[in-house]
């Protein structure tokens, strides 16, 4: 039995709307500016944790050590 053309058109329209909504979601989720802001926020939150603060401190000590070693090496 043949399908009703109006029903077919309604199904096509519904599929088109669903695809448009999916594309809108993908566009939002993959927005470079949104991803950049999200990444920045995650880093800032991590840096405020005890582990983040300890890591920054350790890196600071390491950099200071390397600089002091280079200065000492130049004097030799």
Describe this structure in words.
Keywords: Membrane, Transmembrane, Transmembrane helix. InterPro entries: DUF3618 (IPR022062). The chain crosses the membrane at residues 51-68. It comes from Blastococcus jejuensis. This is DUF3618 domain-containing protein. With 76 residues, the protein is mostly helical. It is 88% helix and 0% strand. The protein has 3 helices and no strands. The chain has helices spanning 5-29, 32-47, 50-75. The N and C termini lie far apart (96 Å). The relative contact order is 0.05. The mean pLDDT is 94.
Secondary structure layout:
Elements: H1 5-29, H2 32-47, H3 50-75
What is the CA-based Rg, rounded?
Answer: 28 Å
Major sheet, described briefly?
none
- Compressed to H and E, one letter per element, the order equals HHH
Please state the structural category: mainly alpha
How far apart are the first and last residues' alpha carbons, in Å? 96 Å
Number of β-strand runs: 0
Taking pLDDT < 50 over at least 5 consecutive residues as the criterion, the unreliable ranges are none
* Binned strand content: under 5%
Binned, the helix content reads over 70%
Q: Could you say which overall geometry the principal axes of the C-alpha atoms support? A: rod-shaped
Tally of DSSP helical segments: 3
Mean pLDDT over the full residue set: 94
């Amino acid at each position: 039995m043949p399908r009703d053309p109006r029903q077919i058109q309604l199904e096509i329209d519904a599929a088109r709307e669903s695809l448009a909504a999916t594309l809108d979601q993908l566009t939002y989720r993959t927005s470079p500016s949104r991803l950049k802001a999200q990444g920045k926020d995650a880093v800032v939150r991590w840096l405020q944790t005890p582990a983040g603060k300890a890591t920054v401190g350790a890196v600071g000590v390491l950099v200071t050590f390397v600089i002091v070693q280079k200065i000492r090496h130049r004097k030799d």
